[in-house]
Amino acid sequence: MSPLLLCGRNVEGLSTFEVAENDMQTDTAKVEIQPNHVEDEKPWKEFMRAFIRHRSALIGSIIILLLILIAILAPVLTSYEYSARSDDLNQAPSAEHWFGTDEMGRDVFTRVIYGARISLWVGFFAVTGSIVFGSFLGLIAGFYGGWRDTIISRFFDILLAFPGILLAIAIVTILGPGLNNALIAIAIINIPTFGRLMRSSVLRVKEEDFILAARAIGMKNSRILFHHILPNCWTPIMVQGTLSFATAVIEAAALGFLGLGAQPPEPEWGTMLSDSRPFIQTAPWTMIFPGLAIMLTVLGFNLLGDGLRDIFDPRMKQ
Amino acid sequence: MSQSVLEISELQLHFFTDKGVVKAIDGVDITVNEGEIVGLVGESGCGKSVTSLAVMGLVPNPPGKIVGGTIRFAGQDITHWTNKQMRKIRGKDISMIFQEPMTSLNPLFTIGDQMVEAIRIHKKCSKKEAQAMSLSMLEKVGIKRKGILDLYPHQLSGGMRQRVMIAMAMVLNPRLLIADEPTTALDVTIQAQILDLMRSLNKEYGTSILLITHDLGVVAEMCDRVIVMYAGQVVEEADCCHLFKNPTHPYTQGLLKSIPKLDGNEKRLYSIPGQVPHPLRMPQGCRFAPRCEYVMDHCWSQKPELLETEKGHLSRCWLHQAKEGSGNNGETNATNATVESS
């Protein structure tokens, strides 16, 4: 985390005026203005301070932490099995079934909290996959330019020419429905986002004086690329990654809803929405709670992503 | 005469752009001898920095390409060395320091990390040894602060960073240090310190220095020999004292006239009239002709050669070359050039 922070602070130093202005407007993201103070503080500590002062980042991370806890502790939090049926079909929420039961008599609360596991899992690996492949391609395209750049950039353009979810549907159709294939599809459609972001950062960073200086001491291209350019491009990827996590959760739910993602009886939120569609009037809780879960997850990641962006780049208007 | 470390002769480096060929360097001869400090002077865009990058093999190709001439370093012709070959001597035998100390260090790594890296690229040694080397070098450049190796670049001032850059460049004891406007971005007081430092390193290690600058004051203070460049060509070369006392090229004369004087009674500072020619539309004859106050007819059509006006003093100007040569081209002139000083 510390390199990221430093990157942000470097920007702060250059825009002291704007930082000061921000401080007057809100009390969030209060960052060090005097370089003397910065010197005495550990980067990590400074980051934590800015983070805690930034309300939406804090709320977002609390939501996400709670989600992660719920996902991990799911077996402890409920005494039901997520696929266990009972005779109580479509029952309203009660002390026994907090979120009611669905059309097969399964406990909705149990399914929602197990669903958190699936959504976080899909989100995490889909985003990690797109970051790894997208960043690598963007790095090559931006650093070497020429024909490599042409090929990679056109590849991104082709991917971006389709609406994301349509492309995901096409990919899942080819690979066959299922949670893992949905994950792969989501990873693929997000590659150009990270690729282009990385490419533009690389184009900026590679013109920096310290890269020329690194060459002038005889450093190899590969080392310059991975040790000097990559770390300096990390911040926007980090922010975009957090925001993309939210989109990935929605996309996973959408594919689930269309029957292309997680298959029954997997308690995937999108699948649950789809399954309970006929009962929207008689048993609305079967849709409301998975829907709320999706909304909260997306909200959490969006808040955190926006917060990180503000913390790393104080020039951004909040 | 001592052995030459760097010998650039007749170097031509052109940039092939969409709009045409930019002859950024068009006939540059520079010799730097062992232990010598040579100043390379000229206004912005005259090709000083490109020359230094060409020596390092760091001119981006494409669009830049060496189309003629040679660069010899320590007796070896390095003009067309591959990137891989050049990498072995960069930082070890030829080092470079840059104009902008504020941005020449990677903001994400500590001073120690970056110095250790610079050492370990060329020298097999443990991290501890490299750190010790870094510390002693940093001490030599005047940074004695404890824990300096753990500081990040933003925690240092511009002058300190330039010292770090110098330490990084000097730590492997290179034979040639190219300093590309090392003091331009610094306060005047810090400038003097940095120049002192470079001179003492030159004395102590015998490192040759090619000092690129547009500041004639810096040159007067530092250099043994001065080379003046204009629009991609060397227009005059002489001993430092000699050049300041007795400039022969009208461009050099103009440069010297445009230095403000302390006893100045003049109301306005002199400036050379006109502008540097557009890189794509260089004059046919002498490149300085459009701005020269002594311009003669044949200056417009014929290129003057860089010839000796007296011993060790070269000048690229028709004023000091055989008048009877007018009408012929420069090459015949070279044979019957007369020594003429103003």
Give me some keywords for this one:
heterodimer, A: 318 residues, mainly alpha, MetI-like fold, 15 helices, B: 342 residues, alpha/beta, Rossmann fold, eight-stranded mixed β-sheet, four-stranded antiparallel β-sheet, disordered C terminus, Peptide/nickel transport system permease protein (chain A)
- Beta content of chain B comes to 15-25%
Report the structural category of chain A: mainly alpha
Gyration radius of chain A (Cα, Å) is 23 Å
Radius of gyration of chain B: 21 Å
Number of strands of chain B: 12
Question: What would CATH call the class of the domain at 85-302 in chain A?
Answer: Mainly Alpha
User: Which spans of chain A have pLDDT < 50 for at least 5 consecutive residues?
Assistant: 1-39
Q: What's the arrangement of strands in the largest beta sheet of chain B? A: 6-7-8-3-9-10-12-11
What is the CATH topology descriptor of the domain at 85-302 in chain A? MetI-like fold
| Count of alpha and pi helical runs of chain A | 15
- Under the CATH scheme, the architecture of the domain at 85-302 in chain A is Orthogonal Bundle
CATH architecture annotation of the largest domain in chain B: 3-Layer(aba) Sandwich
Mean pLDDT of chain A: 84
What is the rounded distance between the termini of chain B? 27 Å
Average the pLDDT over all residues of chain B and give the rounded result: 83
The major pleated sheet of chain A works out as: none
Question: What is the percent of helical residues of chain A?
Answer: over 70%
Protein name (chain A): Peptide/nickel transport system permease protein
Transmembrane segments (chain A): 57-77, 118-143, 155-176, 243-262, 282-305
Family (chain A): Belongs to the binding-protein-dependent transport system permease family.
Domain ABC transmembrane type-1 (chain A): 116-305
